[in-house]
Here is the input.
Amino acid sequence: MTENSPAARLEARIADRRARIGVIGLGYFGSRHARIYADHPIADLVAVCDRDAARADEIGRSLGAQPYSDFRELLARPDIEAVSICLPDRLHVEAAVAAAEAGKAILLEKPLAHDTPSARKIVEAVEKAGVRLMIGHILRFDPRYVQVYEAATPEKLGEPIHLRAKRNGIRSVAARLGPATSILFYMGVHDVDAMQWIARSRISRVYAQKRQVLGTGNEDALYAVVNFENGAIGQIDYSWAWPDGLMNGYRCALEIVGTQSAAYLDCTDQGFYAVGEATTGADTHLWPEINGRITGDLADELNHFVVAVRTGRPFIQRYQEAFDAIPVLDALARSAETGQPVDVAR
Amino acid sequence: MTENSPAARLEARIADRRARIGVIGLGYFGSRHARIYADHPIADLVAVCDRDAARADEIGRSLGAQPYSDFRELLARPDIEAVSICLPDRLHVEAAVAAAEAGKAILLEKPLAHDTPSARKIVEAVEKAGVRLMIGHILRFDPRYVQVYEAATPEKLGEPIHLRAKRNGIRSVAARLGPATSILFYMGVHDVDAMQWIARSRISRVYAQKRQVLGTGNEDALYAVVNFENGAIGQIDYSWAWPDGLMNGYRCALEIVGTQSAAYLDCTDQGFYAVGEATTGADTHLWPEINGRITGDLADELNHFVVAVRTGRPFIQRYQEAFDAIPVLDALARSAETGQPVDVAR
Amino acid sequence: MTENSPAARLEARIADRRARIGVIGLGYFGSRHARIYADHPIADLVAVCDRDAARADEIGRSLGAQPYSDFRELLARPDIEAVSICLPDRLHVEAAVAAAEAGKAILLEKPLAHDTPSARKIVEAVEKAGVRLMIGHILRFDPRYVQVYEAATPEKLGEPIHLRAKRNGIRSVAARLGPATSILFYMGVHDVDAMQWIARSRISRVYAQKRQVLGTGNEDALYAVVNFENGAIGQIDYSWAWPDGLMNGYRCALEIVGTQSAAYLDCTDQGFYAVGEATTGADTHLWPEINGRITGDLADELNHFVVAVRTGRPFIQRYQEAFDAIPVLDALARSAETGQPVDVAR
Amino acid sequence: MTENSPAARLEARIADRRARIGVIGLGYFGSRHARIYADHPIADLVAVCDRDAARADEIGRSLGAQPYSDFRELLARPDIEAVSICLPDRLHVEAAVAAAEAGKAILLEKPLAHDTPSARKIVEAVEKAGVRLMIGHILRFDPRYVQVYEAATPEKLGEPIHLRAKRNGIRSVAARLGPATSILFYMGVHDVDAMQWIARSRISRVYAQKRQVLGTGNEDALYAVVNFENGAIGQIDYSWAWPDGLMNGYRCALEIVGTQSAAYLDCTDQGFYAVGEATTGADTHLWPEINGRITGDLADELNHFVVAVRTGRPFIQRYQEAFDAIPVLDALARSAETGQPVDVAR
Here is the structure.
């Protein structure tokens, strides 16, 4: 068939119905992205990349994808239309800019970047290249958070008075991640984004205190009080200091109280308990593996990315909203360093 | 293009990648099936049917599907490959047999049928026609139930000692459904299937008592004690008598205790609360509508059906397992009538 | 002072303001009774008794009470006005009859007796002697149960439709108690009493199934469906088979649904969690030891006994109500043996 | 009998065994204090006082106590040994100083006073008069808080890393109390005391933000981050802005994470639910009224006071610890006013 024959055009249309995807970075999240794409009805996982070539080989083989250890080689493939970037925070800017320049649609695991200047570079590269960018803010796909968001419309809630967000994890995760990230950029970005989204307002001023005594290589905890542009006050509670025996491995919550009503969520109870030498739980929301597949919020997020890429539908979160969390994290870091309130520089 | 031209064959392959589906019965569940298919990456909702022609028209128009008021006309369309049947229990046998005879793959909302002879007719029709049949046992797609199932392997659990299942709803639902179903076939089939699946054993003997004083047109409650073939004992707690103010509108639970370990789930806490004149909840698991779409267990179930139909992969539940619940429901009904223990006739 | 001098009479009045109490049986509960009396503002723990003389000596010394190893010697002391009997079930009848004959006010730990004939003997001895008898039904002093009781008045609840009670414990307790009791008389009596109290009606017919495979020397589990005289149906869920790692060591619940409203309690969440190698809980209701004292339901129960003995006020539960639970337990045992429904013999 | 006759001395000893008590202030808490004393085995409620003479008459009559509308008259009675002071915060100093000068043992409802200078005056008056003073910090008698305290010994917890306390109530209470108190002195004192007690360390620096838009006459919410002398960081979450439909009317929690382990409590679930037009709860811990009496934490607190007064035993909390909360509240108020971190002046 020649390139312009009707048959060739039809063949192209067949191919075109499926999204050809590569995954860059095969750690905890990247390997899950790869598995989800490999199982998606209209995605083809065609390539995976990790600087650990053996890991890339193994995952590539098991999922039928070409392995790479250099993401630039993966990005050079013209048949790949979209990529998930699941690298450590500090490597986001280089990979995301390269992906933009290569013309790929990008699903970039949160945080957008590890500081405001890097975030800006990514946004500029994306806008210059005219490619699509979605940040992996999984809470936007968590029914509990979305229910709070929908209960907090101005019509129902009135004016927001105060919001509180909690995200606590266990110390072995802090030790495992080491200097690859920080409590603010690993955990904090979730809740800063969620609070601004749900409050329909941005954070303008912050005050934070932190601790670092466990020696995990990361902060143990960071507590903050924040102000929103609309007058609401907020409270943030991040910890990576919980003992590893914490039920389900994490605790998170969010609440918003308005002049007319209020709404809250609490993830402590996941609805499932196993009882042996102790009582333990299991994930039933984020990325539970059931029936041999990864389901839940992460699968829904990746499905949204694939479908939006294929259909041209808008992402439910514009990247500008994700960007808006980064200066808040920078301000929180500065406040925790100086012990003084800090205005968010936008 | 002629039918055998290369272009026609390619066009056919394009079409072939998508499942062309019809939905029969547009009540609470049928309308949700229709919306989920209409939004699915590889499903085309091509037809909907309700004996209320106006309802079929309205839903068909909003979702871009051809409306029918006679399911036999829908089934006569050769381009429709698969159907969801979401009719009242007593109408299952006629529609399912017709769908089988029309050669369609069938997703039949639970229960398989409203009694054992009808269930047998459906199974025979399906086997004779050589079509595929999946029963809508949504708990097989609920992470909480699947986590219990996976915690209850013989290696982990040892021998099952006892199991308890609870499914309670509100009285206005009982009144709304009226004589279209019964507490056993509407609620009970969920848990009889789940208990037999999780216990890896079938129920062999039952004893039940029921109440009917609220005047909803349905039973208010049915309590039972059952025996499993493997020696385990079980307890079943069905109620449709809760006041409508019940948080989230339902309560369900399942637990299994074995010689080595135990596991349980409880759906009371859905993790989300809205506070106004009272504190209320919202669905975060079954079929939550978030971001303008229906997600959760029901969406995952329909995705499984579509993908399995397209790829030829097996359904995670064989219809024989679904069939195995029906004689238990019949026995429970008989015991509740007679006040005596009843052996399950298989 | 002579015995009839005014000073002697006043001295007697001083003594009289305090209840002089002995505790018979110093196991798990008896030792707690002793500690609570020793700390009570108007009780004097004057004697303790255990057939293990060393244990009686040790506890007597630590609490300033005279130790006995023969309860008849303790009962022979005329200065002791009231006794707690905390012996194994099968020894209740002998000790309670002796205490009645000795003219003591009696707090008899539940169950009243280990079968209906024994219960009858105790009641007859008490009535003949004209002494006061209170059964240690601690749930009557648990705010959660009393709140359900008060929410279930006919005015609020309407007519009871169905009730469910759950009491589950861990297997090591079953093994520790061995043949000294049974699942019905140790656990079951709590809920049979509570259900009849809250339903304002007695159980008239029962059906039960049980398991005994763990080899603890006790039943592992007993499931039952029951009928009440007022038409309500009930469900009972007893287990001693849970692994020892069960959070808080027990699970209990009770719910009642009526024609107008409903109420329920669940003891799974005690409000307190400790996190180390696992997440565990602690008692915050039954008999928590806080600030160096035993508080909670058990302390409130014993306070009620002491004050009622001193003031002549009626006990909140008449012993006839406690008696009414025993024939139900007998019927449940018979049904579990025969596999047939059994009418309760009153 | 003459005053020194043996009979008179014995009569005095009889009387002496009971604590003769007056209650000053008969609002929400004072009326409960009065009822609890009236029912206590060794307390005699002899007098009650409210500036609303009709209210004093009514409560006095119903409980058999002499009514007063001027607390100085009540304090002038030499037969009254101890008083509960349950007045609005700002009136504490005058009444408590007068009670001290009158030689009474004092149970002063929290907060000790409405600012640091007033607290100091009370302490000085108590020390000068040599009377006993207990502050009504009810959390010291709540099993959930005491369990956290006992789980947080240095041996178990290691070094405290971070603590969080939450106390949220409904807006109608804020409106009812009006200017009689403030969010910090009504709610805040509970948690500042509890945090310092459980952390075994005092708060040294604070930062707070508050809101006041609902127009209840009180603050709607106050969020703070604090530092402890031992290096721990803390977070405080006070709100009076929740809609009145909040389940149980309040939400509170406390958690502490240390270098070795962690512990937390959450009061959201009280274990009891009533279901009618909505699902509601009821108090099962603080001061539940069951069996016609007030039980729970408040009753245990007042029992502790009575017994300690009668026996001379020490109070479980020294008033100096209660005093230590007041400068923190002052600092929080100042920080919320100025928007700057404030060092606690001790």
In short: Residues 183-199 of chain A form the longest helix (17 residues). Chain A touches chain B through 51 residues (CB under 8 Å).
